[in-house]
Amino acid sequence: MMTAPKPSYSCACFYTDNIFIQEFHVHVLSSQGCRTSEQFRNVLETESFLAAEFLTAVKYSKSPQANVEGLLHHLHSITDKRIYRLPVFIPEFCAKLVEELENFERSDLPKGRPNTMNNYGILLNELGFVDALTAPLCEKYIEPLTSLLFPDWGGGCLDSHRAFVVKYALQEDLDLSCHYDNAEVTLNVSLGKEFTDGNLYFSDMKEVPVNERTYAEVEHITGQGILHRGQHVHGALPISSGERWNLILWMRASDVRNKCCPMCDNEPVLVKTLGDGDGFTSVREDREQTVDICTLT
Ligand SMILES: O=C(O)CCC(=O)C(=O)O
Ligand SMILES: [Fe+2]
Question: Which residues line ligand 1 (CB under 6 A)?
């Protein structure tokens, strides 16, 4: 059996219930103009940009005896809220990535914005970074970790993601309101640059009543990532100087979201989208899209 590329879907709630909704455009770049430099591409072909501790944690997670207790020796648990810190990229890579993104920002190429809450920042699919960087990162490196840490949130069957960079600066966005992500699992990696304040804060899962929530603040350390459940309520405090850039991966598991949309908490009402959609799949379409090779020969 061979499966054709699956169409992508959003839940209709995105168009009706989204309190941050703004006019939102997704642009696809033509191949000329914005291409990552050869030097940058070469870095992506090796593991040299990944932190040694990250590679060790991934290797452990892929080993036959791996379990969550063992993995926790390789990560830093922030409180008991299932929020984990770990080094992901070497700092030199973060600096290169930001430089590349700044070149893109300066260009007059059309730009979509990461999500309805950020006015600045960059969608990484517009630079070809999904195939080159974030898809292999999710599949080969992050999923072994999340399958142990978040099996109850589809951590072992993540099948799509939205990759973007958020940017905060004094004349631009300063902070990010309290929210939960359109994701089952999120990775947030600090890319620098220099800034003061702007810590992340985590409350509780969204079903916890507001008056029972407690808050934990989390500092940014360049190259280090924070792994958390998408439905964990969080936000970012204002920076008071400099520029803050973070790479965000909203990772989705269609097995989980097809049953209940994480944004409206109902069974999703599927709307076919032209772009990447929000990681929902249609069982009926899957059946239609599946080609039985035997019938072709
Ligand atoms: O500002 C940050 O680093 C957090 C971004 C975030 O939570 C998001 O984009 O979903
Ligand atoms: Fe978020």
Answer: 115, 166, 176, 181, 188, 200, 234, 236, 246, 248
Helix, strand, or coil here: 191?
coil
138, with CB counted inside 10 A (0-12, 13-18, 19+), is buried
Q: How far is the CA of 233 from the centre of ligand 2 (A)?
A: 8
Using the mean position of ligand 1's atoms as its centre, give its distance from the Cα of residue 96 in Å.
21
Task: Give the distance (Å) from ligand 1 centre to CA of residue 47.
Answer: 26
Report yes or no on 30 lying in a domain. no
Residue-wise pLDDT tens digits, 168-217: 999 999 999 999 999 999 999 999 999 999 999 999 999 999 999 999 99
Q: State the residue range of the domain holding 275.
A: 1-18+266-297
Q: In this structure, is residue 7 part of a structural domain?
A: yes
Count of CB atoms within 10 A of residue 46's CB?
Answer: 8
Mean pLDDT to the nearest integer, 29-39: 43
Question: Does residue 234 share a domain with residue 91?
Answer: yes
Lowest mean pLDDT among 23-27, 100-104, 262-266: 23-27
In whole angstroms, what is the distance from residue 15 CA to residue 75 CA? 38
pLDDT at 251: 98
CA 234 to ligand 1: nearest atom? 7
Instruction: Establish whether this prediction's ipTM goes over 0.90.
Output: yes
Which residue, by CA, sits nearest to atom 10 of ligand 1? 181
CB distance 92 to 43 below 8 Å: no
